[in-house]
Amino acid sequence: MNKFVVTGIPRSGTTVFAKTLSTIDNIHVANDQHDFYEPFKIMSNSLDLNPLPRLKELEDNCRSNYFGFKSFPSDLLDLTALRLNGYKTFAIVRKDIWKSIFSHAIARTKLFRDNDNTAFKGSSKLYTESVSASSISELPPPLLRMFQDSFFTRIKHAYEFETQYKNTDVIYFEDLIKPNASFECVNNYFDKEIIFNLNYDDSDDFSSYYKNFSPELLHNMCRHFIQTVNIPNDCPQYIKDSIYKYYIGDR
Question: pLDDT tens digit string along 219-235?
Answer without folding.
Answer: 999 999 999 899 999 99
